[in-house]
Amino acid sequence: MTADNPHDGRKVRAEERRNKRREEILSAARKVFSIKGYHASSVADILAEAGIARGTFYLYFPSKRTIFDELLEGMVSQITGCVRRIDVGPNTAHHLEQMFDNIQAVVDVLEGNRELTIILLREAVGLDADFDQKLNAFYYRLYDMVERALSLGQTMGLVRPCNTRLVSYFVLGSVKEMMLQLLTDDHASGLDRETIVREIMDYNLRGLFRDPTVEPSA
Amino acid sequence: MTADNPHDGRKVRAEERRNKRREEILSAARKVFSIKGYHASSVADILAEAGIARGTFYLYFPSKRTIFDELLEGMVSQITGCVRRIDVGPNTAHHLEQMFDNIQAVVDVLEGNRELTIILLREAVGLDADFDQKLNAFYYRLYDMVERALSLGQTMGLVRPCNTRLVSYFVLGSVKEMMLQLLTDDHASGLDRETIVREIMDYNLRGLFRDPTVEPSA
Amino acid sequence: MTADNPHDGRKVRAEERRNKRREEILSAARKVFSIKGYHASSVADILAEAGIARGTFYLYFPSKRTIFDELLEGMVSQITGCVRRIDVGPNTAHHLEQMFDNIQAVVDVLEGNRELTIILLREAVGLDADFDQKLNAFYYRLYDMVERALSLGQTMGLVRPCNTRLVSYFVLGSVKEMMLQLLTDDHASGLDRETIVREIMDYNLRGLFRDPTVEPSA
Amino acid sequence: MTADNPHDGRKVRAEERRNKRREEILSAARKVFSIKGYHASSVADILAEAGIARGTFYLYFPSKRTIFDELLEGMVSQITGCVRRIDVGPNTAHHLEQMFDNIQAVVDVLEGNRELTIILLREAVGLDADFDQKLNAFYYRLYDMVERALSLGQTMGLVRPCNTRLVSYFVLGSVKEMMLQLLTDDHASGLDRETIVREIMDYNLRGLFRDPTVEPSA
DNA sequence: TATGAATGAGTCTTCATTCAT
DNA sequence: CATGAATGAAGACTCATTCAT
Question: Separation of CA A52 and C1' F17 in angstroms?
Answer without folding.
Answer: 51
